[in-house]
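The following block was generated as part of the benchmark described in Methods. Ligand: S-adenosylmethionine.
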Amino acid sequence: MKHEPTRLEIFLTKLAFLFYDKSVYRAFANSLPLKGSDRVLDFGCGMGTVAHYTAKMLSKGHLTCLDISEPWLNECRKNLRGYSNVTFVQTEFPALENESFDLVYCHFVLHDIAEGELGKIIPALVESLKPGGVLVFREPLKETEKISLIKSLMEQNRLFSKDCRITDIPMMGNTLECIYIKQ
Ligand SMILES: C[S@@+](CC[C@H](N)C(=O)[O-])C[C@H]1O[C@@H](n2cnc3c(N)ncnc32)[C@H](O)[C@@H]1O
């Protein structure tokens, strides 16, 4: 379901970005298995908190920043201006080219999406990955039911689990990061 951010939400997210920067967003970007020449999708990019770092890591690659919300995508455009290796896509539902990405990541996005939508979005994300491609997500660990559904949809859609780990973020709580590979 589409939810447009208020100015206050945008302001608070900018503050969180300043506060958490290294420990949350940069650390997540650094943990992604990137070679530098990859084609990457940031699904639900928001204001580009993670994209800010991945764009720098893709000197010979390309990053697609996708968000359902035009206001968030505009913030992302502002934060990533100057990068020639980034494309911005606003879409309700990912109409993505098949087998075009080496890696797709979803950072604090999937737990907010309704069950019925996840049943359409996850197969579309998997289709957009090249064979052997990687899907990484990070979600709040307390969203146990949503996480079980996300994991079962990943496995039903030809992804196999490579690794999952729990990270504790001060004031945010525990988060779960999982890496899946497309067979
Ligand atoms: C909590 S924010 C996370 C933003 C960013 N990934 C981060 O970690 O800072 C969730 C983002 O997902 C986007 N989103 C929610 N549902 C979506 C959908 N169906 N397709 C694309 N983006 C979506 C929202 O607009 C929002 O920008």
